[in-house]
Specification:
11 helices; alpha+beta
Length: 335
C-alpha cells in the first residue's frame, strides 16, 4: 500500500512512571522511503490478524474528541503531517500515562491503495538483538518487534468522508490482556463502537447454516459453499477489511447472487451490511463429513456440542435438532 506520508515519534515513561514524554520526529519520512514502506507493511499485516474493535467517530457527547478536527485540518492542507501527528502522539501520551510502562515508537502512516485512503498508527517496541558487522564480528543490533503489537488503530478515511452510513470505518486493537491500552486508544480516536465482530460473525455463520439447510444442497455443494465463505472471510481479514453481505452473497451462489442476501434480510438476523471477520470464530467453522454403509452425514463443526453431540464411549452421534425435511420423511415412513 503506497505511503503518502509517514513519520515516527518516540514515547517514553518518566522515571517516576507518572507521565509519558514525547520526542517528536524532526520531519516526516520521504514517501519513497523503502524502509518505512516495508515497516508499515509489516505492521499492517500483523494488525490485520489480531482481534479488533470497530466503530465510527462520535461527533458529539462525552466520547467525541479533537482527532476529527485535526484530521480534517490536515486533509484540507491547513496543518502539516508533522504537526498533526505530534498532536495525536501527545494526546496518546496523556491518555496512556498509566497504561504504558515501556518506551516505544509510534509509527503513523497516511496510505492509499486504489481509491481507498487510510490513516494507520501503531506503537512498536525495540528489542536488543545481535548482528554481524562488516568485519564478520557479532555486534549488538537493535531490532523492532513488528509482530507483538499492543497498540494500533486504523481509520478508513475514504469511508468516513463519503458519509454513507458505515458503522465501522474506525478499528483498533482490542486485546483482552491490554484493556487499558485499548480503552485509551478508543478515547483518543473519539469513537463509539458499532459492531461486535465475534457476535456478528457467529450470527453470519448461523445464517449461512440455515440457508444451506433451507436450500437442501447436496454434500459436495454444501462443502463448496462453506469453503467459499471461509476463503472470502480469510481474505478480507488478511486485507484488514470487513465482509460485505452483498459481495459474499454473489460469491456463495453466482447463479443466484441475491439469494443468500435475501435470506439474511427476510429472516431478519439483524446483521450489519458490513461485518468485520473474527478469526477465532471462523477457525471453528468447518464441516465434518462422513459416509459408510449407506449413511452419509455432514454438518458444520460449530454445531458440535450444541445441536449435535458426539459420545465417543458409545461411538454415536446425537442429533438434537433433526432437519425439517428429514423429519417429514421419517414421519411418513413411520405412518
Amino acid at each position: 500500500m503506497p505511503l503518502l506520508q509517514s513519520i515516527v515519534h518516540r514515547l517514553e515513561p518518566t522515571l517516576d512512571g507518572e507521565r509519558l514524554t514525547v520526542t517528536p520526529a524532526p520531519a516526516a519520512s520521504a514517501p519513497e522511503d523503502a524502509h518505512m514502506t516495508s515497516l508499515v507493511g509489516k505492521l499492517g499485516d500483523a494488525y490485520n490478524t489480531k482481534a479488533k474493535g470497530w466503530g465510527r467517530f462520535a461527533l458529539e457527547g462525552d466520547q467525541a474528541g479533537p482527532l476529527v478536527a485535526w484530521l480534517e485540518a490536515y486533509l484540507a492542507g491547513e496543518q502539516d503531517f508533522l504537526t498533526f501527528t505530534t498532536a495525536l502522539t501527545e494526546r496518546l501520551a496523556s491518555e496512556l500515562k498509566e497504561a504504558l510502562s515501556v518506551s516505544g515508537y509510534l509509527v503513523v502512516a497516511h496510505q492509499r491503495q486504489g481509491d481507498t485512503e487510510t490513516l494507520f498508527f501503531a506503537l512498536v517496541h525495540q528489542r536488543e538483538g545481535i548482528g554481524i558487522d562488516d568485519a564478520h564480528q557479532a555486534v549488538p543490533a537493535a531490532q523492532l518487534n513488528t509482530q507483538q503489537l499492543t497498540l494500533a488503530a486504523r481509520v478508513n478515511i475514504t469511508q468516513w468522508r463519503q458519509n454513507e452510513g458505515s458503522q465501522q470505518y474506525v478499528s483498533f486493537l482490542k486485546d483482552r490482556g491490554a484493556k487499558k491500552l485499548a480503552d485509551g486508544v478508543a478515547a483518543v480516536l473519539g469513537m463509539e463502537e458499532g459492531v461486535d465482530a465475534p457476535t456478528e460473525t457467529r450470527t453470519l455463520l448461523k445464517a449461512f447454516s440455515d440457508y444451506v439447510e433451507k436450500e437442501d444442497f447436496d454434500e459436495d455443494t454444501s462443502r463448496e459453499k462453506t469453503d467459499t465463505l471461509v476463503e472470502y472471510a480469510s481474505e478480507q481479514m488478511r486485507r484488514g477489511e470487513p465482509m460485505t453481505l452483498e459481495e459474499l452473497s454473489e460469491l456463495v451462489d453466482d447463479q443466484a447472487p441475491k439469494a443468500f442476501y435475501d435470506h439474511i434480510r427476510n429472516a431478519d438476523y439483524g446483521l450489519s451490511p458490513e461485518i468485520p471477520p473474527d478469526k477465532k470464530t471462523l477457525s471453528q467453522f468447518r464441516r465434518f463429513t462422513g459416509r459408510a454403509g449407506g449413511v452419509s452425514i455432514s454438518f458444520d463443526s460449530h454445531l458440535l456440542g450444541s445441536s449435535i453431540e458426539y459420545d465417543e464411549g458409545q461411538d454415536r452421534l446425537i442429533i438434537k435438532q433433526v432437519p425439517k425435511q428429514l423429519k417429514e420423511q421419517l414421519s411418513k415412513r413411520k405412518g
